[in-house]
């Protein structure tokens, strides 16, 4: 049985005070759920504040939304994986489509980041997903195959166990247009097959694959009911406690 994960990607939202307040509310709700892993990804400026506001034994885990692939040096504006560990993060999101599209990150850079993050002791949420154009041109499977094989290139089995994949079709992000549970299940089962081919069947069976793209309290249960959907990476609906807590609770019953 794969333990579901509900993760909130706060993107470029929230002051330190707003972030710590929301995290405290979510931590209280997460404490009641031992069958769901709950993760929040505040902006860099709020990471240490959020970690500091949580009880020491908090069930809520904290992720960063990005990091660089070097441990230190002259990389103005970048954050090292070890700095995220120092701030109290357990996870980092890598390869988000906004990083790929707006900031030009490619699979080779993302793979270097994956290696650096794992080496520093972080768990990785690796985002993949096709654009609408790629789907319409029937290139979706090729795109997913490249993103998975290049993103996970060179990892050992022990490292893979600390990676979660988030399938986020770009056309569903922030658009209100969720993939149907059939579309999501089809992509997730394909991705699990890819991981199986690259690393082995038992590794693929153990891998959590999250869906992301306009997840709301209204659609989470249909997604969670599917065999290969192990949770969600939530954007907009993770920014206020009520919706995100409803999503956490649906994930548990799903
Ligand atoms: O990009 C996302 C999570 O990483 C999804 O964002 P939305 O839930 O706002 O569509």
List keywords for this structure.
254 residues, alpha/beta, TIM Barrel, 8 strands, binds 1,3-dihydroxyacetonephosphate
Alpha carbon gap, first and last residue: 13 Å
Q: Average pLDDT, to the nearest integer?
A: 96
Radius of gyration: 17 Å
Elements, N to C (H/E): EHEHEHEHHEHHHEHHEHEH
Structure characterization notes:
- It is found in: Cytoplasm.
- Its EC number is 5.3.1.1.
- Pathway: Carbohydrate biosynthesis; gluconeogenesis; Carbohydrate degradation; glycolysis; D-glyceraldehyde 3-phosphate from glycerone phosphate: step 1/1.
- The chain has 254 residues and is of the alpha/beta class.
- The chain has one domain: Aldolase class I (TIM Barrel, Alpha-Beta Barrel).
- It is built from twelve helices and eight strands.
- It has helices at 16-30, 44-53, 81-86, 97-102, 107-119, 132-136, 140-151, 157-160, 181-199, 201-206, 220-224, 241-253; strands spanning 5-9, 37-41, 60-64, 91-94, 123-128, 163-167, 209-212, 231-234.
- It has an eight-stranded parallel barrel with strand order 1-2-3-4-5-6-7-8, surrounded by six helices.
- Helix 7 packs across helix 9 (181-199).
- The longest helix is centred in the last third of the chain and has 19 residues, at 181-199.
- The protein is globular and about 45 Å long.
- It starts with a strand and ends with a helix.
- The mean pLDDT is 96.
- Bound molecules: 1,3-dihydroxyacetonephosphate.
- The site of 1,3-dihydroxyacetonephosphate has 14 residues, from strand 8.
